[in-house]
Amino acid sequence: MSERGSGLVGLGEFGLIDRVTARLSYGPAVLLGPGDDAAVVAAPDARVVASTDVLVEGRHFRRDWSGARDIGHRAAAANLADVAAMGARPTALLVALCIPPDLASGWAEDLADGLAAEAATVGASVVGGDMSASPTLTIAVTVLGDLGSRPPVTRAGALPGDVVALAGRTGYAAAGLTVLSRGFRTPRLLVEAYRRPEVPYPAGPAAAGAGATAMIDVSDGLLADLGHVAQASGVAVDVRRDAFEVPRQMRDAAQALGVDPYTWLLTGGDDHALAATFPPAVALPAGWRPIGGVAAGSGVTVDGRQWEGPAGWDHFR
Amino acid sequence: MSERGSGLVGLGEFGLIDRVTARLSYGPAVLLGPGDDAAVVAAPDARVVASTDVLVEGRHFRRDWSGARDIGHRAAAANLADVAAMGARPTALLVALCIPPDLASGWAEDLADGLAAEAATVGASVVGGDMSASPTLTIAVTVLGDLGSRPPVTRAGALPGDVVALAGRTGYAAAGLTVLSRGFRTPRLLVEAYRRPEVPYPAGPAAAGAGATAMIDVSDGLLADLGHVAQASGVAVDVRRDAFEVPRQMRDAAQALGVDPYTWLLTGGDDHALAATFPPAVALPAGWRPIGGVAAGSGVTVDGRQWEGPAGWDHFR
């Protein structure tokens, strides 16, 4: 039992909610915060972007691999990245937390700190939520966002001739997860990338402003997610392997663990990079680099050929 | 295994999401529905009301007491009522569903049908969500709503001299739950009230329009929820027992089961009635009836005295 917590059994649902909400602070978009039947959030252009992601212990995280704060960062990042991938700015999070009754209350408070800290990096706030006891630790996060009067950038607008570009890293989190799953705790670069993804949030609205034709958050793995873009847009996407640098720590870890590092780079999820397509005449905004091209056809290729190996991640398989 | 479903193991996450979203339809507030990184929903007055509720199997529902469609209705109702209790009109739901991998896909489809059907009664739509395998069947729902240019009605505005009023039923769902928990399946009136609450959604915006000073969704039980209003408003609330009629089926069930029916009426949750306070000069809108009054002080009384018995419901106790 944590020194801070008497556990949920002792505090009760309302007591724990009070402890958690006492730790929060609110950005200017929050017109009414937690404590009532619902929150009220500003939606300046009369539209709101909304997305939900759920994390289940043992499937999306493990308490022996990540601290509560880390898990909060990662749960928030997965959602905030979805809003950025529409070209929008996140404004608010709502969190449904299901926790084993004997888990010390300090765990939930640390989780809330992580969620709030990650949201604060983009000026967003935790505005509401719900809590229940459950045998399975589960965190469902809903994010709201503001499009800033631009149309949303969907997966469906890529055109033949477009440039495929990437903002942020891929493969780092997947490599970190492999390292942890083999019982190691280093290299830190990879393990920390898994625990707290570094998401290029501002690159989303920047891409929308520059005229990106399609955009997606890389959560299932780059090739799988570009596959979603190819399918929704009715086009073919090709990725160039030489657009990816294998950092030293990743090369060393790959060698030690007997893994092809390009499997991490091209099919690893959880870094929440953003992938987008731009008309060829567009100068890519800061943070974006070209990694391939769009052509007539269907499917995703690497250097013109089908990728041999695992394509992505399906949480039911 | 259902005749419709090969189960989640066979379909995978994307396959099941496709099956579920194929069943949905969208109201005018849905600017972009499921299938992208996020949905886009209209927020006509540049604000959005948002709330999240989570239901955990064995704690908030049991599959042997309610069908998947019923559980969908109830999960949606719990959320839609929170928006109505702010004086707003629900526009959209997002659903995070965690399901045991061997559960037949027909179950998730039926759940989605129930969620969508309940949302459709107020013109709202399911616009997004997420799905994961989990050992514990868990449904987290987020609801969005539109205030129609009115200020939100919070729990904090009740004033001494106000009338306390109720829209909808209390105690029916709690009675139905007691009946089910004792192994009975009738009276149908009570069991069905538990399975599919009849929520007076339009009474929320109507109360806001009429000048309600405070409002709350009765989910923890009338006395507990009026306690939240009393605390947030810094007032005392008194409820009159004679404002409540005990219907015949409830009286019979109470007698057979050895329960005081007023325990159901005054402390039972899950019907999602709305309770509000109105200035004494206001003519109550249709669907509302007076049940008590507000005075200076603190706490909740029944006929001027403290209520002896269970006060409400805390999911951790």
Automatic annotation (TrEMBL), chains A, B:
Keywords: ATP-binding, Kinase, Magnesium, Metal-binding, Nucleotide-binding, Thiamine biosynthesis, Transferase
Protein name (database record): Thiamine-monophosphate kinase
Protein species of origin: Salinispora arenicola
An example Gene Ontology molecular-function term: ATP binding
Annotated positions binding ATP: 129-130, 155, 219
NCBIfam families: PRK05731.1-4, thiL
Domain PurM-like N-terminal: 35-145
SUPFAM superfamilies: PurM C-terminal domain-like, PurM N-terminal domain-like
Family of the protein in this entry: Belongs to the thiamine-monophosphate kinase family.
Binding site for substrate: 60, 270, 313
PANTHER family: THIAMINE-MONOPHOSPHATE KINASE (PTHR30270)
Residues that bind Mg(2+) 1: 52-53, 130
CDD domains reported for this sequence: ThiL
Record GO biological process: thiamine biosynthetic process; thiamine diphosphate biosynthetic process
Positions with a binding annotation for Mg(2+) 4: 37, 51, 82
Extra facts: Reaction mechanism of ThiL seems to utilize a direct, inline transfer of the gamma-phosphate of ATP to TMP rather than a phosphorylated enzyme intermediate.
Residues reported to bind Mg(2+) 5: 220
EC number, UniProt record: 2.7.4.16
Residues involved in Mg(2+) 2 binding: 53, 82
Reactions catalysed, as given in the entry: thiamine phosphate + ATP = thiamine diphosphate + ADP
Pathway: Cofactor biosynthesis; thiamine diphosphate biosynthesis; thiamine diphosphate from thiamine phosphate: step 1/1
InterPro entries to which the protein is assigned, alphabetical: PurM-like_C_sf, PurM-like_N, PurM-like_N_sf, ThiL-like
Binding-site list for Mg(2+) 3: 37, 82, 217
Functional description taken from the UniProt entry: Catalyzes the ATP-dependent phosphorylation of thiamine-monophosphate (TMP) to form thiamine-pyrophosphate (TPP), the active form of vitamin B1.
